[in-house]
Amino acid sequence: MTKKNIKLDKEEREILRAIDRGEYVSSKNLKKDREKYAKIARYALLKNKTISIRISERDLLRLKAKAAEEGLPYQTLITSTLHKLVG
């Protein structure tokens, strides 16, 4: 599939424009960030309960964009954020 065949919504198009403008940059300390997120991912793998929640499609898209920015699966981002909140 070529890029021109992908259907993007308004928010996704804005993310691509921001990338093209250079507003997203690589981490200044990539090694440290990778270690941090590897630790978060390991913790997320320890989960033993499943829940279901309903959220708006817009919030889900924003979560996915933020997770992509961080280089994480969106569910891992949600899990780590909840862990920080209650931890």
Features:
87 residues; mainly alpha; 0% strand
Model description:
This protein has 87 residues and is mostly helical. It has a domain at 30-87. The chain contains 4 helices and no strands. It has helices at 10-20, 30-45, 57-70, 74-86. The longest helix has 16 residues, at 30-45. It is flat and about 40 Å long. The N and C termini lie far apart (43 Å). The mean pLDDT is 86.
Could you write a compact summary of the structure shown?
The protein is an all-alpha fold and 87 residues long. It has a domain at 30-87.
Low-confidence region ranges: none
Structural class: mainly alpha
Let me know the average pLDDT.
Answer: 86
Helix fraction bin: 55-70%
Helical run tally:
4
Q: Would you report the number of β strands?
A: 0
Radius of gyration: 15 Å
Strand content: under 5%
Largest sheet: none
Form type: flat
Note the run of SSEs as H and E: HHHH
N- and C-termini, Cα separation: 43 Å
